[in-house]
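User: I'm curious whether this sequence folds into something compact or stays loose and floppy. Could you predict its structure so I can see for myself?
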Amino acid sequence: MDVTTILTENITVGFVIGFLIGILVKIASKAIRNLLILQLIVIKWLEARNILIVDWHRLTNGLIGQQELVLNQTTDMFESLIEMGVFGGALLGGFMLAKRIGKK
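Assistant: Here's the prediction. I'll summarize afterward.
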């Protein structure tokens, strides 16, 4: 196989996989968002009826110092995606196209 064939195959496969992942992420994010909203409403309703007691201030104790860890993990993931080369670029392109199509 020559280099052009390999690059074309990587671009095509990466684009298709990225597009499919973009569609799945869009569907999953809507489902998770709706589930979290429903859970918050139920928890607040149970708390208003004195059935459940929630210490809202204590819930954030572990999350305050985690911002740097999340930022580092995101940076490492982005660098790995760039290092993948042509396949990574095509994957990102397909993902972004799926997100753009989903907004309309």
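Summary: The chain has a mean pLDDT of 77. The helical segments are 3-48, 56-59, 67-83, 86-103.
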